[in-house]
Amino acid sequence: MAQAASKTCDICVSGPGxxxxxxxxxxxxxxxxxxxxxxxxxxxxxxxxGPNINPEVKQYCKEHDENFIYYCMECxxxxxxxxxxxxxxxxxxxxxxxxxxxxxxxxxxxxxTKIKNIQSNIAEVDQGSHTYQADVKExxxxxxxxxxxxxxxxxxxxxxxxxxxxxxxxKNVQNLQSVGNELxxxxxxxxxxxxxxxxxxxxxxxxxxxxxxxxxxxxIEQKEGIQIPIMPSVKYAQQKATxxxxxxxxxKLTFGESVSREINPKPQKNVRFVFMKDIKRIC
Length: 283
Known about the structure:
Elements: E1 19-21, E2 26-28, H1 30-38, E3 47-49, E4 60-61, E5 66-67, E6 70-72, E7 77-79, H2 81-86, E8 93-95, H3 96-199, H4 206-221, H5 243-247, H6 277-282
Antiparallel strand pairs: 1-2, 1-3, 4-5, 6-7, 6-8
Coiled coil: 173-223
Organism: Mytilus coruscus
Keywords: Coiled coil, Metal-binding, Zinc, Zinc-finger
């Protein structure tokens, strides 16, 4: 195996190894590279060129000191060409390079699928958040509307109660004023009779005095027809509504809790290998 640190041609061991053959895993100088590409078996080899090339470090079979070129499907391990003959002759195996390309394509697809799923989930969360916020605004508006409606009902009830008190008060006041006026009239008559009586104190004629007293007494005995009404009264017994009773006046709040779910399930492993039936036949 070529050592990148030496930077010398592995073929002529004299020129600078600025060209790395990816198939042969060797460093070539410019001249040896040209010769290598002119050879029929290596004319399609590919090179990395330049002073700062970094040759790929390949894994080798420690037992046979050979490159791993196959992958055993039954043993799930990388094997070299000698391992195929000695230990894995009857097993199914595939070329590492082709298998790697298959896995590479699947990894790329899995990543793209994962990104697509995450982007879809982000859009779903954004849409759900937007819908939820709209629901929150709608619920708040509904609560305010319910409160406004209940306040209107309370205001109407308060106004009705106050109007009832005022109407009853006006009627009672009118009745009391009427009785009061009658009593004032009766009082004036009584004072007038009192004045008549005082005027009789100066009469010396007994007959005349008796006549005046009988006249005053007759006026006093006349019924005035005034009935004193039972005094009106009014009270208000407060109803102390409890918190639970107030809650019954409103609707019910229902929350759908956010539940976590697996948004990026792990993709199932589905590695495709190209079976080397022809290689098995030659082994």
